[in-house]
C-alpha cells in the first residue's frame, strides 16, 4: 500500500512547523494522529524521514528528498480538484506586474499550472517594484499587481485580495546563542548583529514592527542569498518569512528558525487592481485560479 494524501499532508505540516504538536494544531487533529502518520510513512519507506530533537523534529536526508515531492503531489491534487469544464475555453490577455520576492519565490510554479489550465490565456508577467505596479494598475497599463498586499492596504485607488499568509520567523545559525530557545523576544534579538533585507521594502516592514528598539545592523542588502549566508555563518540573525526560507545556505551551512513571542505580521501575497475595474474574462480566470487554490475551504 502506498502513501496516502493524508499522510503526505501531515508530513508537510510537520516539516514546515518543525514540531508534531504545532502541526496537529494547524491541521485541527490530535497529536497522536500526526505521530501515527509519520510512523506509517517511515514504515512504508523503510527509512526515517524525521530526526527527533529536544526542540522538535528536523528532516533527515530522506525527509529532505520527500518534502518537495509531497508538496508537488498536494499541489497537483488541489489543481485537479479546481479544474472546471470552462477552464480550457478562456481566451484573452492579462498584464500582471509582479514584485521581486513574489516573482522569485511564489510565481514560477503557478506559471506552469495556469498554462495547463488555460491554454488560451496569454499572461504577460512583468517584474517591477511596488510603486510602478500601483501606477501601472491605476493608469490601465497593467490589469493586476501580484505583490505583497500589506504594502498597498492604504492606497484608496486600489482594491486587493490576499491569498497567501507566510509566517515570519527568526533565522539563526545552529550555534547561535538564541538557537534552541523557544519563542524568543525582539528584546533578546536586539543584542545581536542583524542582517536587514531591503528588497520589496522589507526594511520598512521590519522597522514597523521593530518599533523603537535599537537594531545593530551588520549588513543591508537586497540579496536573500547574502542574508542566508551571513546568518548561516553565525555573523547575524534576521527575521524573514517561511516563503523565502531554505534550511541551507549556498555554502551548505544550516539555518535554524524559531517563532518570536512578540507580534510579527505575516508576509501577505495577493492581487491588486484598480478600484471599480470591471474584470475581463482573462482577469476573472486569473483571479479565480488563485482564489480556488488558496481560499476554497475544501482545498485548504
Secondary structure topology:
Blueprint: H1 5-17, H2 20-27, H3 31-45, E1 50-53, E2 56-59, H4 61-82, E3 92-98, H5 100-105, H6 108-117, E4 121-127, H7 130-139, E5 144-148, E6 158-166, E7 168-172, H8 186-189, E8 194-197, H9 202-210, E9 217-221, H10 224-232, E10 238-241, E11 256-258, E12 267-274, H11 281-294
Parallel strand pairs: 3-4, 3-5, 8-9
Antiparallel strand pairs: 1-2, 5-12, 6-12, 7-10, 7-11
Helix pairs in contact: 1-2, 1-3, 1-4, 2-3
Description:
Helix 1 crosses helix 3 and helix 2 packs across helix 3 (about 30-45). This protein has a five-stranded mixed sheet, sandwiched between helices. The protein has helices at about 5-15, 20-25, 30-45, 60-80, 100-105, 110-115, 130-140, 185-190, 200-210, 225-230, 280-295, and strands spanning about 50-55, 55-60, 90-100, 120-125, 145-150, 160-165, 170, 195, 215-220, 240, 255-260, 265-275. A hairpin with a 2-residue loop joins strand 1 (about 50-55) and strand 2 (about 55-60). The two termini are about 25 Å apart. It has about 300 residues and is of the alpha/beta class. The model has no long low-confidence stretch (mean pLDDT about 90). It is globular, with a radius of gyration of 21 Å. It has eleven helices and twelve strands.
User: Helical segment tally?
Assistant: 11
In helices, the fraction of residues equals 40-55%
| Main sheet: strand order | 4-3-5-12-6
Content of β-strand = 15-25%
Shape by Cα distribution:
globular
The major β-sheet equals: 5 strands, mixed
